[in-house]
Amino acid sequence: MPKRLIQTLALALPLAATFAWVGAEALARRGPLEPSPAMQSAAPTKMAVVDLMKVLKSTDDGAKWNVHINDLQRAIDEETQSRRDDLKRLEEEVKKETDTAKKDAMTDELLRKSLLSEEWLKLKRNELDRERSLHWQAIYRSLRAEAKAVATQNGIDLVLIDDAMDELSIDDRANQSRESQAFAQMLSIQVLFASDAIDITDQVITRMNNAASAAKPTSAP
């Protein structure tokens, strides 16, 4: 090792040891580190949960939407069956017709009505899908607004959907392995347990029903 490097190390090592000793002495006098004033003054987060399934079953607005959508579905089913019966009747008439020209004309009419029925059904299914979407959007807006109101009144910082399950639900007929079903459900759960003491579902439902009663009637539901 070069002589100059040896001399440099001989001078540097005592200095490093001195600095380390001074630092250790300073930390010892200071004592253990304490949380900052901001950390000391921060209050614990107050949380609450809402049972979504109970909300969907118990709100007046949800019940009205269900009646509206069920009525629409029933009307579509009845009209669909009527159109099918009409097509079946026309098909039987085509089979019985012996005149070639009339048979061809009736066949064309059968095809036209069949195509019109298919297009009508597509439009009605789209209408039903739109109404169902509006249903969930309305429920979500009301749920969020009233949960926020309850939280604000009670000093609650965070409201979660209580999706805790006692057991995972496995459908043997599903086009998915049992393992995949169980694993997917487990990954989707956000809350494993919530005490009744932080459940604000009933308060939210009451506010949602009161808001629905006070609202002006709309075209749907």
Description:
- The protein is mainly α and about 220 residues long.
- The protein has a domain at about 45-160 and about 200-215: Protein Binding, DinI Protein, Chain A (2-Layer Sandwich), CATH 3.30.910.
- It is built from seven helices and two strands, in the order H-H-E-H-H-H-E-H-H.
- It has helices at about 5-30, 35-40, 50-60, 60-95, 100-155, 180-190, 200-215; strands at about 45-50, 160.
- The chain has a two-stranded parallel sheet with strand order 1-2.
- The chain is elongated and about 115 Å long.
Shape descriptor: elongated
Which regions have little confidence, pLDDT < 50, spanning 5+ residues? Answer: 5-13
Instruction: Give the SSE order as H and E letters.
Output: HHEHHHEHH
Number of strands: 2
Our measurement of the CA-to-CA distance between the termini, rounded to an integer number of angstroms, reads 92 Å
Largest sheet: 2 strands, parallel
Q: Architecture of one domain, according to CATH?
A: 2-Layer Sandwich
- CATH class assignment of one domain: Alpha Beta
Binned, the helix content reads over 70%
CATH topology of one domain: Protein Binding, DinI Protein, Chain A
* pLDDT averaged residue by residue: 84
What is the spatial order of strands in the main beta sheet?
1-2
Measured by DSSP, the beta-strand proportion falls in: under 5%
Using the CA coordinates, give the radius of gyration. Answer: 36 Å
Alpha-beta content class: mainly alpha
**Alpha plus pi helix count:** 7
